[in-house]
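To close the chapter, one final illustration. This time we ask the reader to focus less on the individual chains and more on the assembly as a whole: which components sit near each other, and how the overall shape emerges from the parts.
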Amino acid sequence: MSDIADRVKKIVVEHLGVEEDKVVEAASFIDDLGADSLDTVELVMAFEEEFGIEIPDDAAETIQTVGDAVSFIKGAV
Amino acid sequence: MFDLTGKNALVTGASGGIGGAIAEALHAAGANVALSGTREAPLRELADKLGERAFVVPANLSDPEAAAQLPKDAAEAMGSVDVLVNNAGITRDNLFMRMSDEEWAQVLEVNLTSVFRLSRAVLRGMMKARWGRIVNITSVVGTTGNPGQGNYAAAKAGLVGMSKSLAYEVASRGITVNCVAPGFIATAMTDKLNDEQKGKILTQIPAGQMGSPEDIAAAVLYLSSAEAGYVTGATLHVNGGMAMV
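The assembled structure is written out below.
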């Protein structure tokens, strides 16, 4: 796993309080990891801070899975 | 009784009677306060009176850009915004049939839309802190209606629905959103009423007198406190019994 993927995983584990092995690329924040819509807003906020990027609202809507987040962030940093 | 030491509060409309009293009450409870309003001189005067822990952040909330800038200015002055009191309000009274689009739009912009913008802007910090208080000053006329105030009553009623919706969304994050609904309070705004109007109003108030800005400030202080953490989506009516809702 790349450094970005590790950092994303760490944020997700901390924020959603889920077990690390559940945070796989294909895992959906809402369907698989138990996030509600406000959790996803907070995750985006946490990603923005961790990576020093801005994630616009329309892009945030496309980030549904852990893999989505990693690939968006890779393209943005 | 309530201790707000270390909390940072932004009060809009702090140049007015009620807003000034709110700022004083929060400050007296230990909060740092950022005083906002359109007129800088009275804000400066209040800040000087309060002394330490008071900051002046003027803003004209009818200007969307100024409304966007205000939370940033307040956070810069104090470090964060933990308590937001949306008190700023204007009136452009007119009979409904004579009310212009402009009178309608101005009142909705300042009394409702700017509250949406300011609240949205401060939520990020409150979510991270897992603590926040938003107190919106509405009005008894938002519940009862008032002839000549179709725009004002619409905006004030709108605040209640907005506050409840937001309260739902952020309750799990330690953020409460409540309204305080003043009845008739002796301020510059009610001074515009003539004696006949005032006399009529007093007959409708079981308490037999107009309220004071301090009556409203006490309600805001309570809703801003840690002790009110389980109160959200509520409207606290402070009106001497004129509308028991």
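Chain A touches chain B through four residues (CB under 8 Å). The CA atoms of residues 41 and 60 of chain A lie 8 Å apart. With these observations in hand, you are ready for the problems at the end of the chapter.
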